[in-house]
Amino acid sequence: MDKQKKSLMDRLTDFTNKISEPLGRFASTDIISSVVSGLVSVTPIIMIGSIFLILYVLGSPDVGTSGQPLIGFLAPWAGKFAWMNSLTMNLMSLYCAVAIPYHYAQKKKMNTLTCSLLGLATFLIFTINGYDEAGGISVTSFSASGLFVCIITSIIGVQILKFFLDKNITIKMPDSVPPNIGNAFGALLPFATIFAFAWLIRTILDFDMVAWLNTLLEPIITSSDSVWMAMLVTFICLLLWSVGLHGDNMFLALFTPFGLMWIDQNASALAGGSSNYDLPNILAGLGKTGLLRLTIWTAAVWPLLFLMVTSKKKQFRTIGLTSLAPGIFTIVEPVIYGLPIALNPYLMIPFILSGTISSGVGYLLMSTSFFGKFYAVVPWATPPFLLGPLGTGDMKTVLIPIISFAIGFVIYLPFWKVYNQSIDTAEKLKEDTPSPEMIQVNEA
After folding, report:
1. Per-residue pLDDT tens digits for 396-417
2. Is residue 273 within 8 Å of residue 63, measured between CB atoms?
3. Structure pTM?
4. Which residues contact 100 (CB under 8 A, 6 or more apart)?
């Protein structure tokens, strides 16, 4: 009986609370938080590589521009820009092999430098099996294609090292030996064990885990780049925000490895001569940048900013003007917690609906050949009307935030009117209700 009496908002809040607890626990585990922190640490390198990729696109005559560079004076430097991109974005997993063990070591209260060196060396041994026919080594695993293997070797390597240290399976040096030398010798046994294990798998057994794992994950990765995935990810993310939880950190960030792999594939296709309109992945950059940064907040928050700034109510205008500048850069906390949207029965539903629907529409639009796809990582706080052109090389992507805003505005309008009416009713009721002081005077 009680369940039947519950409103839609109550049921929505109960559902969110049920899924937020396990999601929060999962996102805050040492392994997941270390992986996310490691990926965040290498973001500056990836962004710089994206800048050079953009310069390459502007200067190269071979990237869907009819044989002519977009900016002529950059043409002589196009090859050098591409090389710089190769040294940054295309070595993403190599940098993560340093960053992820570092953060995991912090969680486990271990020596961060030792664990970073261990992670880097283990990853190299695990992914390289001698010279190729040209006398060099293959570095394809150093790109985003080796990211999942990098995560596995980083976490397992640190765990094995911790086991050896906890069990005192180390070479003990006299107390007179300086601590740094003693630590180096103390790490010999665990390092030798981990390296031998990695060497046995990759070199002796000739097992290429990068190729095997990518083959295994390919159906999942391919099917994940879909309109339904875009809408589902957005729905859950906004659902968490609507009850006051940070949906981006708790849920969206978990998709960063997929998003980075997709953007790396798009960047490689672009460097190979494909047009930015024909790149393979629509959700490239998911978790960091990309399509959803064009759709979610432009639909779920920007219409509210407009409605508040143009409102006749002073409190709304104050919140709207205060939140306007951060909101343009998609810093949405002032609106979500200041208006608030979180736990607001009048605004939660349009908040979730607007972002989810606009993400689906945005995906369908970008999946056509009319819009370019993301191939560069642009900072998440870049205003959407700049983020699209910078990340895709297509000025027409400014239409997606405009369309998303229109979708959000239409969805919000009836709810906003009801919300205003509820405030007017509450204020009128407050005016008509005598204060306790007046009641005491009348009784006297």
Report:
1. 999 999 999 999 999 999 999 9
2. yes
3. 0.80
4. 34, 35, 37, 38, 39, 119, 150, 151, 154, 155
